[in-house]
Amino acid sequence: MNAPYRPGRIESDPVPAPVETGPEASSNRDIAPDIRLSQPVLIGSVLGFDLTLLVLTGYAAGALTGTETGSAGMAAIIVGVTLGVVLIHQRLFGYTIASFARASQQAIRFGGSVMAVFASMLALMVVSGADAGVLRLWALGWAGLAFAGMLLSRLALARQVARWTEEGRLARRAVIVGGGKPVHELVQSLNRDATKAIQILGLFDDRGGERSPDEIDSYHKLGRFDELVVFCRDHKVDLLIITLPHTAEARILHLLKKLWVLPIDIRISAIGARLKLRPRAYSYIGKTPFLSVFDKPLTDWGTAVKAVEDRVLAALMLVLLAPVMLAVALAVKFTSKGPILFKQTRYGFNNEKIGVYKFRSMYVDQCDANANRLVTKGDPRVTRVGAFIRKTSLDELPQLINVLKGELSIVGPRPHAMQAKADGQIYDEVVDGYFARHKVKPGITGWAQINGWRGETDTVDKIERRVECDLHYIDNWSVFFDLYILAMTPVSLLNTKNAY
Predict the structure, then answer these.
(1) Residue 345 lies in a domain
(2) 293 SS3 class
C-alpha cells in the first residue's frame, strides 16, 4: 500500500507559509527568508585565507631561518609554491563544503599537497646544483608553519561548518516542477536521508486537482510553468528538480527551452525511472538519484576562483592605471560642464540591475541614461574628449570599481544598457535565448570584444554574433581563457571600427 501524502519535510527545511497561486499572486508570495551563506563566497574566503597563509608563512620561515627572501627570485618561488599547493589541494577536492566539515580529511589532503610541492621544489634545487642547505631548512620550516596554520584554521572551520549545516545556512534553495505521487515519493526519499543539503521552497505545475494538489507533504504550489523563470531569479533558486513523468517529453523539452537561460542546476528525479543506468550516471542528494540536465556554467570553485581573480586584477589595474584615469578625469572635467562620472543602469548577473560607472563622454544635458538611441559616428551628443575615450574604451576604466564591488568581472559578456536596440528592437526581442548571457557576471572586456564585436549594434546580425561569442565564452570559461582575453584586449582596441 502506498503511503498517504502527509507532512514529511526535510528537517532543515523551514515550511513556507501558505501562498496564493496563479499569475496574480506572483508579487504576493510569502517565501521562507533566505538565511543561507553563499557557498562560493565561503569557498573563496577559504581560498583567499590559504593563499595569504602560504605567502606569510613563507616569509616568516625565511625570517626564522635567516634565509634571504627579499629578492624577485625568492618572491617568484613563494608565489609558485603557493599556487602549486592550492591547485593540488583543489584537485584532491579540498575546496568543497563537504570536505570543510572534516578537519582530519582536510589535514591529510593539505599535508599531501604541501609534501608534493615542497619535495618537487627541493628536487629542482638539487638538480640545478643550487646550495640547498639553507634553502632546505627554510622549506621545511615553511611547510611546518603552513601545515600548523592550516590545521588550526580548519579545526575552527569544521566546527563552524557543522553549526551552519545544522542551521540550514548552507542549504541550496530548490523548487520542484510537477505534482502528485512523483513529488510525494521524491520528498519522502529526501526525508529518509534526513539531508540538510536543500531547502525546498515549493512546487510549480500547470495541472490541478487530484493529479497535482495544491499541497504535498507541507509544500505548497507556488505557480505555473510560465512563472518559473521570474520566480527563480527573484528568489535566488540554486536547484530546479523536474518530477514530470519521463513519458511527458514534450512538456519537459518545453520547460528546458525556457529554463536554460538561468544560472541554476536543473535535475530530473530518477526515482522509479525505468531506464536503469550505472550509478556514476546519476548525481545524488543524499541517496536520492537525479539525472543532470543543465549545470551552472561555473561551479562553486570556479565562482570562487573568478571572484579572487577579479578583485586581485582590479586592484592591480586601479593602481597601475591611476595616472591614466586621473588624466582622463581632468580632460572630462575641464572640457565640458558636468560630472566626471556617468552612471547607467544595466543588466547584470541573473538579470539583476546594476549601476555601471563610466567616464562621461556626452554633454551633460544630452546624456542618454537608458540608451534609447545608439551612439553613431559623428554623434553631436558626444564631446571631443568623449569621442576619443569611447574609441579607445578609456571611458570604461571606472568599471574597475564595479569589479571591486562584486557587480562586474574583468572578463565576461558586456553589460548592455536596458533599452539598447538592434535594428529598432530591444536585444532580447531579437535574439532567442539572449538572457543566457546573464548566467555569469558581465565583464569590462570579453570574447566578443576581442573578436571585433564591440561598439555599435545597428543590425540584428551584429548582436547575434556578439551573443554567440558570449555563449562560447560561458561554455568554455577557464582562468587561462580569461588571461588570454585580457592580454588580447589592448590589441583589439587598435581596431576602432564600430566604436563611436
Answers:
(1) yes
(2) strand
- In the chain, the largest separation of any two C-alpha atoms, in whole Å, equals 82
Closest Cα to residue 238, out of 191, 205, 269, 198? 198
Pairwise pLDDT comparison (11 vs 49), residue with the higher score: 49
Residue 362 has pLDDT above 50, yes or no: yes
- Cβ partners under 8 Å of residue 226, min gap 6: 23
The SS3 call for residue 47 is helix
Q: Which of 240, 262, 296 is a domain's end point?
A: 296
DSSP-derived secondary structure for 343-405: EEEEE-GGG-EEEEEEE--B-GGG--TT--S---TT-TTB-HHHHHHHHTTGGGTTHHHHHHT
Chain centre to alpha carbon of residue 463:
24
The owner of cell 565562482 is 303
Strands (E), 164-243: 172-177, 198-204, 215-216, 219-223, 239-242
Contact status, residue 482 vs residue 413, Cβ threshold 8 Å: no
Contact 265, 198 (CB under 8 A): no
Cell matching residue 326 = 586621473
Going from the C-alpha of 93 to that of each of 180, 260, 302, the distances in angstroms are: 38, 27, 13
Task: Specify the residue for cell string 592591480.
Answer: 316
287: containing domain: 23-36+171-296
Residue 11: pLDDT above 50?
Answer: no
Query: Would residue 6 count as lying in a domain?
Result: no
Residue 463 pairs in a beta bridge with none
CATH number for 263: 3.40.50.720
pLDDT in tens, 404-420: 999 999 999 988 877 67
Domain boundary among 132, 151, 167: 167
Distance CA 91, CA 487 (A): 27
By CB atoms closer than 10 A (0-12, 13-18, 19+), residue 129 is: exposed
* Identity of the amino acid at 88: I
pLDDT in tens, 451-476: 887 766 667 888 888 889 999 999 99
